[in-house]
Amino acid sequence: MPTATQLDHKAYIPIAHPGDDVKALFKQYGAVRLHDFKFDTASFDKFVSGFNETTLTDYSGGYLGKTGRPKTSTNTFEASNVPPNFYFPPHNDLSYFYEQGRMPGIILFCCLTPALKGGYTPLFNAHHAFKLLPDDIVKRIKGRKLSYVWTIPREGIAGRMKVLPTSWKSFFGTDDPDEVAKLVQDLKFSRHEYLYLGGEGVSKDEPSHLRLYMDGPMVTQHPTSGKDIIFINLGQSPEARKHFAKHYASDEAYQSVIEGSREFLTLDAPYVEWADTHEPIEADVMEAIISAYERSRLDWGWSQPSESIIFDNFLFAHGRDTFEGPRSVITSFGNIGDHKMPGPDCVAFTTTSTAA
Ligand SMILES: [Fe+2]
């Protein structure tokens, strides 16, 4: 039974078996689990290339600079490999690039090796979460843009977040400021600035850090249905990490999460700020959003070898539970009809849960 702080995943995510019309179920629910397909990397790759109308195959070369996720086949990538004791908060993959039209509409995951304990990939219904926001919060945030702020040092730091940049070089494949500036422009970041803080081997006459800004909406409308969805990406948010780590991890893991956040946020810059004022997002706004997401959580779990899930990257934010033991999940990103599904009749837009 779902608790008072989560939704009943069975009402929102159907299970398809071989022979079922997976696309029809996806259209109706916005998410579908696949059982008994007996996927390996090659057959999952074949499945996703048939399911998507377009598949994003250049993630590692064009989305997060030069070093992105390792490819596991033509159309699949290694899923996020952040450390096992991190609870990864709700986020829509690549939502930083929404305004540049580079955010995938669909995410597909296949779990090749389930963890011994935990390691789930919870979904969070972003429309349901929006509906839970108090009216006064909605008035303050709807229509406003925020900036995602990344501060990357020139010299590498010994980060544990393997998929995240630890230096200009690991991010862009060069530490030359001019080449970096061109790549920043090519990747359409909203703006960037250099910081001159000095440091080991860096004089104060040359830039020590690069700060990147990517603007996006706090709340937006689903591309097909037009319904409101919370859109802020909480993936690296210290507030969200703190909240979810407290809920799901041991004290030791929680401390590790906080240290990990410091590694990534190498300076005191906020991870997100309002784009218009450059002020931090107010604490009560962050609390309301995190709480709304928490109450819109779908805690389904990987339950059989090679289980897969397909979901709408706009309608559902996703996270990753902490885990023990080995775990292998591969992922693919695609679009169907330029985000034209699922539509207004999608169950995930309309189902009301008694537990909500
Ligand atoms: Fe993700």
TrEMBL record:
Source organism superkingdom: Eukaryota
InterPro entries found in the cross-reference section: AlphaKG_dependent_hydroxylases, TauD-like_sf, TauD/TfdA-like
Every TauD/TfdA-like domain range: 19-327
Keywords, ordered alphabetically: Antibiotic biosynthesis, Oxidoreductase
A molecular function (GO) term: oxidoreductase activity
Biological-process GO terms, alphabetical: antibiotic biosynthetic process
Protein name in UniProt: Clavaminate synthase-like protein
